[in-house]
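B., you asked whether I could sanity-check this one before it goes into the benchmark set. Here's the sequence:
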Amino acid sequence: MEELVDRTLQLKMGEDEDWESLPMEPVEITGLSLLGRLLTKKPWTKKLTKTVLGRIWGVEVGWDMKIIQQENEACILGFYFTDRDLLEMVLESRPWRLNDGVLFIDRWPNSRDWKDANLSSFSCWVKAFGIPLHLLTEKNTRKIAGYAGEVEEIQFDNAQNAHWRNFIRFKATIRSDSSISPGRFVSGNGGQVWVQFKYERLPIMCYKCGLIGHEKSLCNASQEVVKDSDGKSIPLFGPWIQSECNITDCFEGAKVGEGKLSRSNGAFEKYKARKMKERVEATEMLLPEISSGRSVSGQEDSLGSGS
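And here's what the prediction gave me:
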């Protein structure tokens, strides 16, 4: 036994031995590679995922995929390309929706360790609807946008144009490990005004808890709600969180769900017309003050604490 131990110790690398390292630059190893994190509650296989992605990307050759590590409801994937244009297209259009889940994509980090990659967040264009006219300054709009995530870019020309559009548009970093922000209350018109966030090309999400990566039918969490002016609980999340939905906000969504704003009886159209008229009247009253600079400059710090 002692002889075996001695022979084993001799097989270990000595601390003072001079070993040559193979010169490898990260770009040479990972330049045509991407990392992915597939987040889904549905069963999946490598073959199915590769087939679906091939159809989504419009090309089934020139790339390959392998499983790096499996987690509870997620899987780390490695993607390898022969065409840089395809790689850049995949990266530019992230995240990708598939198999009732979402695929986050990022470049390999220089450390070559996939754990250092950003696979829990993505960039998303967001529209903030309903900001009161007197709060439409560049400082205020950037502050409001910050409630959705880290602001990368904001499109703001002037208060009048933003008010006529009824929204401002900005790009923010959205995290998948926490609920997306549905909006918030701000101070305005003598009370609290709800500003609704609507996300463009949002991947699959839960209308119950607000998390990215699964649907409401697969969620065991409690419904996230907000109180309306009558103290009634209103679901925070619904189709209105998507930019493509023409329901303005969660409160309007609740009325549509209750049938109070049925599209068939014309009540919905009347409601939208009334809201437009209110915006026009507010603009006519405040435009003289905006032109003189009094109303805009005096309200930059009047945002409410929210809920």
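One thing to flag: The chain has a mean pLDDT of 77. Otherwise nothing jumped out at me.
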